[in-house]
Amino acid sequence: MTFLRRLGALLDRERRFAGLRVVVIAAIVMAAARGYREPHPYPISHWLLDWRHGLVKRGFVGTLVSPLYAWKAPSEVGDVVTTLSLLVLVAALVALAVGALRLARSATRPPDEAMLGGAALVLASSPLPVSMAYTAGFFDRFLELATLGAVAALARRRFATIPILVCAGVLVHELFLLYGLPVLLFAVLVSSVKPGEPVD
Which conformational region is residue 194 in: left (phi greater than 0), alpha (psi within -120 to 50 degrees), or beta? Predict the structure, then answer.
């Protein structure tokens, strides 16, 4: 009977999580669809900066993608950048959904499960996905991916990956130092605290 109760509880938890997954993904998709705007000339111009004529600030992305539009007509360059920025946006939204759902699934007690599941729903239905879609084309999505990737690497103890992602984030945009790096340092602090030990 104990085994059957445990099995039933596990199946109930899986059903609840499957429902949460559907709702979170649907909320993020609807929010992004509501906020999406094609990149205008200002963010597109950032993608055209590269290092062919010197080590210019924020030229890392342009250096990597410039072969994709080097021989394109000026009218086609905007289409290439729009497509690339949409792909980066989708990757950032997927990373956001995966991170929120993994956090919710990490709960081991029903109260924690309810709290973290609610937090995932709040995040999915917040203005964040709308803002991410509205500012498509800006380099913020790269910074968010670098930050989430570094935190995920820390959680999986893949420490060699962290400095690569940090350097990439700084090369994409120096603003990474102001919000990506502090998030990573906070994650380092939290990961060093033993369960039940207060954080100073």
Answer: beta
* Cβ neighbours for 165, distance < 8 A, ≥ 6 positions apart: 146, 149, 150, 153
> What whole-number distance in Å separates Cα of residue 169 and Cα of residue 190?
22
- Report the DSSP beta bridge partners of residue 138: 136
> What is the reported pTM?
0.84
Q: In this structure, which long-range contacts are made by residues 105-113, counting pairs with CB atoms below 8 Å and at least 24 apart in sequence?
A: 105/17, 113/13, 113/16
Chunked in runs of 10, what are the mean pLDDT values of the chain (200 residues)? 49 74 91 91 90 86 89 84 94 92 78 82 90 94 94 91 95 92 91 60
Concatenating the DSSP letter of every residue in 6-20 gives HHHHHHHHHHHHHHH
Residue length of the chain: 200
> Going by C-beta distance under 8 Å and a sequence separation of 6 or more, which residues neighbour residue 131?
35
